[in-house]
Amino acid sequence: MTKQLIYKCTVVAAVALFVSACKTPALLTKEVNKEVPASYNGSLDSTNSGQLSWRTYFTDPYLTALIDTALTGNQELNITLQEIAISQNEVLERAGEYRPFVGLRGGASVEKAARYTHPGSTEATTDIKPGLETPDPLPDFVVDLYARWEVDIWHKLRNAKKAAALRYLSSREGRNFTTTNIVAEIASSYYELLSLDTQLAILQNNIGIQNNALKIVRMQKEAAKVTELAVQRFQAQVLNTQSLQYGIQQRITETENKINFLLGRYPQHVARSSDNFETLVPEVVRAGLPIQLLSNRPDIRQAELELTAAKIDVEVARANFYPSLGLSADLGIRAFNPVYLARLPESLLAALIGDLAGPLVNKNAIKAQYYSANARQIQAIYSYERTVLNAYIEVINQLSNIGNLQNTYDLKSQEVQALTQSITISNNLFSSARADYMEVLLTQRDALESRFDLIETKLQQMNATVNVYRALGGGWN
C-alpha cells in the first residue's frame, strides 16, 4: 500500500510539473523588417566597389604600406582578436554543459559523534565494543568516480551553445567592421597629410611672390612713387603669410602622429609622396544595389547574428519553465580503514540517482528572465533595422557628396585660374601706377585663399571616395 501511494504521488507530481510547464506567459512580439529600396538612384547595375579589396581600391603604394602595418600593429584590432578568443571559449563552455561530466575524487575524514545526538545515540545502541574493527572516532576513506548529467530534454543547453556560437561569429564580424573603419581612417588621414604638404608648398611659394612684391614696393618708395604706408602694408602681408606656415606644420605633426597611433607605433616620419595631390583623380565609385549592403557590411551581419542569438535566448529562457531531469552516479570504494579498501565487494559503493524538478509556485524570477530575454530580442530587432537604415543613408549621402564636390571643384578651379591671372595683372597695373597697392594686396590674399579652398575641396573629394567605400562595406576583405 505504501509503495502504491508513493508511486501515485510521484505520477501526480510529474503530471503537475508538466502541466505547469506548459503554461508560459504571453509575449509582445515584433517581426523584423529586412526590406531595402531597390536602388540608390534608379540604376540596377550590381557592380559594387565595396566588394573590391582595399589593395585594389587604394593604389598609392605608401598608403597600402601604412594599412598593411596597421592591420598587424593596431591595438584596437588586437583587442578585438582577444574578444573573438573569449567568444570562442564561451562556445566551448556552453558545449560542455550539456555533456555528462565525469570526475575522480578521493578523500579522508574523521568524525566523532556527540553522545546525545541522533548519530551518537544510534551508535550507542549497537553492540560494537571497543577493540573491535570499528574505531572511535570513526575515520572515513573514499576513492570514487562520479558523474553528473542534466538531460537536455528541452534543448535549453544546446540552444545556449547555439547562441554562444552566433555571438562568436558576431565578434568576428565586429573585428571586420573595426578593420573597415581603421582602413578608412588611415586613408582619410593620409590624404589630409598630402593636402597639408601641398598647402605648405603653396604657402612657401606665395611667400616668395610676396617678397618680390615687397622689393618692388621698396624700390618705388625710394623713387617716391609710394609712401612708407604701402611698404609697411606689404611687409605686414609677408609676415602674416609666414606665420601661417607654422600652424600648418603643427597640423602635419599631429596628423602624422594620428597615423602612427593607428599603426600602433611611436611618432616617426610618415613616408609619402605629396607632389601630385592636386592632380589626384578620385576613384570612380560604383555603388551596386542596396540589397548588397546586407552581405557586404560587417556591422549589418553582426547585428543580424546578434538578433538570431537574442531569439535563441528567448527559447533558453522559456525552457526554465519546464521540468529538468538530472542524473548522477557514483562508483568507488569506501571504508573506515585504508586496509579495507581492497576488500571487495564489501568496500564497493555504487549509486545512481535521477531527479525531476521544475517550478510550481512563485515563478517571478523565471518570468522576469523570460520577459527580459524577449525585450532584448526586440531591442536587437530595432538595432538591426537601425543599422541597415544607417548604412543606406550613409551611402546615399556620400554618393550625393561626390557629385556636389565635383561641381564645386570645377568652379573652384576656374576661380583659382582667374585669381592667379589677376595677380600678374595687378602687379603690372601697380608698376605703371594704374592700380592702388591695396588692390595688389587683396588680389594676393584672395588668390592664396582660393588655392587653399581648392586643396580643401580636393581633400573632401578624396575623403568622399574613402567614406563611400567604407559605407559600401569595403576595407575588411
CATH topology value of the largest domain: Outer membrane efflux proteins (OEP)
CATH superfamily of the largest domain: Outer membrane efflux proteins (OEP)
SS class: alpha+beta
Strand fraction: 5-15%
Mean pLDDT: 87
The count of domains is: 2
Low-confidence runs (pLDDT<50, min 5 residues)? Answer: none
Give helix and strand order, one letter per element, not per position: HHHHEHEHHHHEEHH
**How many strand elements?**
4
CATH architecture of the largest domain: Up-down Bundle
Measured between the Cα atoms of the first and last residue, the distance is 74 Å
Output the CATH class name of the largest domain. Answer: Mainly Alpha
Total helices: the number is: 11
Strand arrangement within the widest β-sheet reads: 1-2-3-4
Can you summarize the main beta sheet? Answer: 4 strands, antiparallel
Approximately how much helix is present in the residues? 55-70%
Shape: elongated
Pfam family, one: OEP
Keywords: Lipoprotein, Membrane, Palmitate, Signal, Transmembrane, Transmembrane beta strand
Subcellular location: Cell membrane
Protein name: Efflux transporter outer membrane subunit
Please tell me about this protein's structure.
With 477 residues, the chain is of the alpha+beta class. It folds into two domains: 23-98 and 154-321 and 362-471, Up-down Bundle (Outer membrane efflux proteins (OEP)), CATH 1.20.1600.10; 99-151 and 324-357, Outer membrane efflux proteins (OEP) (Single Sheet). 63% of the residues lie in helices and 10% in strands. It has helices spanning 2-22, 54-57, 61-73, 75-97, 118-124, 156-222, 228-263, 293-296, 298-319, 364-431, 437-471, and strands at 101-111, 138-151, 324-335, 348-357. The chain has a four-stranded antiparallel beta sheet, with no helix packed on it. The radius of gyration is 40 Å and the shape is elongated.
